[in-house]
Each structure stands twice: as structure tokens, then as C-alpha cells.
Specification:
Number of strands: 4
Shape: globular
Helix content: 40-55%
Distance between the termini: 47 Å
Number of domains: 1
Number of helices: 8
CATH topology: yeast vps74-n-term truncation variant fold
Order of helices and strands: HHEEHHEEHHHH
CATH superfamily: yeast vps74-n-term truncation variant domain like
Largest sheet: 2 strands, antiparallel
Structural class: mainly alpha
Length: 210
């Protein structure tokens, strides 16, 4: 079986012990979209650059190479990025299908079940917690024990912490400051994770000011 995508790992972390999402469905969609786009960016399948002749110097998302990646989920994201749109537009387009895409993969791996509900939306539940617990243990070891951080880990920690989902990594409230300091020391989030974070934070600010 192939390794989990970082978005699949994020989804497992964001499922409550008794089922359902830790965050709103909108925020989960954006976090998973940031994970999918981050996967392609780290593999140098997509980048963000200024088009030749663009008077305003706007940076747009483009694909690198002629062929999409072999993974069907990443290929779907690649085709969205192949349209030369802004980072925010690409983020929002991928977020529209990110949950269904990632949860479908997890179902195929027999890691989650989905119960159809007409009113409240589908309920996602973990089939067992061992995979989720292993991911959580890996990220906690990076934060608390000084294990070397990879680009994948950095991406996931940015997406969780800056969208206020880092409690999924805590065993106790007192660990909040340790996690905060660690992620702060990773530096400011970069594209494409920053695009996801900006959308989530912008939504929260809009709700707070309403």
C-alpha cells in the first residue's frame, strides 16, 4: 500500500474520537486543500510565478512539466493549478472537492467509515485509531523531543497551528505554549500553506466582526 498523503494524515488528525470533524467543514476543506497543494509544491509539480508581460507583476499558480502526477488525487489538483490562476483562487477551487477526495481515499484504505445523513451532512468515523495515533506521536516527537522536522512535518504543523487546530496534538493544556513556540520558530507559513491559512483566518475574522 502506498504511503498516506499529508492531506490524508491531516484528515485523520481532524476526526473526533466519536466521529465528525474537529473544525467546521469549511475549515477542514481548506486545511486539506492546503495539504494537497503542499504535496505538489514540494514535489516541484506546481509553483507560483509572475507571467511574462504581466504589467501588474501578479504571481499566479502554474504547473511544472507536461504531465500530471500519476496519483489520481494529485492529478486532479494539478489540473486545477494548470489554469494560471491566483493562489487564493486555486486554494478555493481545490477546497471544493478536498474532503470528498481525501475521505474517499481513506475509505478505500479502510481507515474510516462514512455514514450518510440527510440533515447534518455525512459523519466520518475512524475505523481504528492506530494510524492516527502514529501520526500524532510522530508530530509530538518533533515538537517535544527534538526529532528533525521535514518539509512534510512543517507543512502539517503550519496548517494545524495557524488554523487553531493544534489542540489535536496536545495531551495537556500546558503544552500549548511549547507547541506555539515551536511552530513560531519554524518561520512564517509560505505558499501554498499560507493561502489555506489566510482563507481560514479571513473566515474567522469575518464571523467575529459580524
Amino acid at each position: 500500500m502506498t504511503a498516506l498523503l499529508r492531506a490524508e494524515e491531516l484528515a485523520l488528525l481532524l476526526i473526533r474520537p466519536k466521529g465528525g470533524w474537529q473544525a467546521s467543514r469549511y475549515d477542514v476543506a481548506d486545511i486539506l486543500a492546503g495539504g494537497l497543494l503542499g504535496e505538489l509544491a514540494d514535489e516541484e509539480q506546481i509553483d507560483r510565478r509572475v507571467d511574462a508581460g504581466d504589467f501588474w507583476g501578479r504571481r499566479r499558480v502554474h504547473t511544472d512539466g507536461w504531465e500530471p502526477p500519476p496519483d489520481p488525487s494529485l492529478a486532479r489538483v494539478w489540473h486545477v493549478a494548470d489554469q494560471g490562476k491566483s493562489a487564493t483562487s486555486v486554494q478555493q477551487a481545490v477546497a471544493k472537492f478536498a474532503i470528498d477526495e481525501v475521505v474517499g481515499r481513506l475509505q478505500a484504505r479502510e481507515l474510516v467509515t462514512v455514514t450518510k445523513r440527510a440533515v447534518l451532512g455525512d459523519k466520518v468515523e475512524l475505523m481504528d485509531t492506530s494510524t492516527r495515533d502514529a501520526i500524532r506521536t510522530r508530530l509530538r516527537a518533533i515538537i517535544l523531543d527534538g526529532v528533525e522536522v521535514t518539509d512534510r512535518d512543517r507543512s502539517q504543523l503550519w496548517l494545524l497551528h495557524h488554523t487553531h487546530q493544534s489542540p489535536v496534538l496536545r495531551d495537556a493544556m500546558r503544552e500549548w505554549l511549547t507547541i506555539h513556540r515551536f511552530v513560531r520558530d519554524l518561520g512564517r507559513p509560505e505558499w501554498p500553506e499560507k493561502a489555506a491559512i489566510d482563507v481560514v483566518q479571513g473566515r474567522a475574522a469575518a464571523v467575529a466582526s459580524a
